[in-house]
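Handoff note, outgoing to incoming analyst
You'll be picking up this chain. Sequence as last confirmed:
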Amino acid sequence: MKHVLFALLGLALTAPALSQSSDSKIKAYLRGGVNYNLSGVGLDSGFTNAGSIARLERPVNGWHAGLTVREQRKDGSYLALESLFSARTYTFQGVDANGNTFDETLQSQSVQLALSPGFRFFKLVRAQAGINALFELNDDFKSTFANYQLGYRLGVGLDLGKSLTLDVALNSAFNAQGGTWNGLTLSNRPSEYLVSVGYKL
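Most recent structure output, in case you need it:
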C-alpha cells in the first residue's frame, strides 16, 4: 500500500510540470486551523490491566498547519497535494489497582500527506476526495501504534477573493490499529474534521 501512495504522490509532484500549459495554473497556499475529533483512541472491552480500570477516554481537539498546492485547469478540475503538521491529545481517567484515581495524557504529533482530485463550481466552491496518509512523529504514540496509517479525505472549500480560502475536510483511517499503553489496551482509528484558513503565496 505504501508503494501505491508514493506513486500517487510522485504523480502529484510531476503532473504540474508535465501539464504547465495555457490550460492549467499552479497555486500554493499556507494553511492552518483546528481539528475536531470524531473518535478517540478507543478503549478495548476489558479496560483493565493489573486491576486498573479506565472509566473515561476523552479526545481533545487539536490544530494543524502546512502547505497546499493546487493545479487548476480551465475546465474547473484540479489536483491538490497537501502536507500538514497535525497535533492531537487524548486523556484517560480512571482508578488503579490501589483505588487511586489517575489522569493520563497521550499525545499525537503527525505529518499528514493528502492527494485529492477535485472540481470547482462557479469559481468559488470546491469539492474534492482523495487519500490521506498519516506519519506519526511522537515516540510514545509510535511505541503503542504503528507510525503509519492510510485513509481517505473528503473536503469542500471556498475561494474568498484572490488570496484567501476556507476549507473543511473529513479525514478518516481505513483500519484501526491495536496497542497497549500504560497498561491500557487501546485501538486507534483517527477520524476528524479539519477546518482551515489558507493564504495564497
